[in-house]
Amino acid sequence: MRVIVADDAVLFRVGVARLLADAGIEVTAEVGDAEALLAAVRADPPDAVVVDIRMPPTHTTEGLDAARTLAAEHPGVGVLVLSAHVEPHYALALVESDTGGAGYLLKERVADVEELTDALRRVAAGGVVVDPSVVAQLVGRRRVRNPVDALSDRERDVLAVMAEGRSNHGIGERLHLSEKTVEAYARSAFTKLGLHAAPDDNRRVLAVLAYLRA
């Protein structure tokens, strides 16, 4: 897999690139801002990019803005946005932007090379990845009105892990369920949420959004 790393903190950028290279991933470029990232992708599109959410010049949402631009120009390039803090509204904005392969992880996750490379492979394949800490905070919010009250506890468990971007196999491993059982819970949740007609991949994203925004 070929990856570009974008972060204005040189030591962090070099460190991530070294971790990825040691894990057998080819880092084709290391850049320090969103414009340089876009130029590098346009010159030689990779399978995925790792980008800090805050970079020059404003240090606000350059990573998210770059993700949207890449989705329009290079929809086949997965984007993994890294953040130093749990910011659920940015994670939801990324998921809701319909950018295709996209993920949001805390920077502390890069210490776990297996988790980082797994997230990159999933976004490169067109999947959605949301940091478990963000999922936990969204699920833990006090809800005045909860549109997912009809779901059983197990169906909610399945959607919570699905929100991290896990496949049915991965959900089954986390919850100690067979893949067929996970599929049954997922279908039941889709039905209760009124998600009947969309393709399965779209239903998964819509179900996760309904769950997280409840």
Short description:
With 214 residues, this protein is an alpha/beta fold.
CATH architectural arrangement of the largest domain:
3-Layer(aba) Sandwich
Quote the beta fraction: 5-15%
Instruction: Indicate the CATH topology of the largest domain.
Output: Rossmann fold
Task: Give the strand order of the largest sheet, numbering strands 1, 2, ... along the chain.
Answer: 2-1-3-4-5-6
Given helix and strand content, the structural type is: alpha/beta
Distance between the termini: 36 Å
The ordered H/E elements are EHEHEHEHEHEHHHHH
Low-confidence segments, given as residue ranges, are: none
Count of separate DSSP helical elements: 10
Please write the CATH class name of the largest domain. Alpha Beta
User: What's the Cα radius of gyration?
Assistant: 17 Å
Helix content: 40-55%
How many beta strands in the DSSP annotation?
6
Number of domains: 2
Mean pLDDT: 85
In CATH, the homologous superfamily of the largest domain goes by the name Response regulator
The largest sheet, given as strand count, sense and whether it forms a barrel, is:
6 strands, parallel
Gross morphology is: elongated
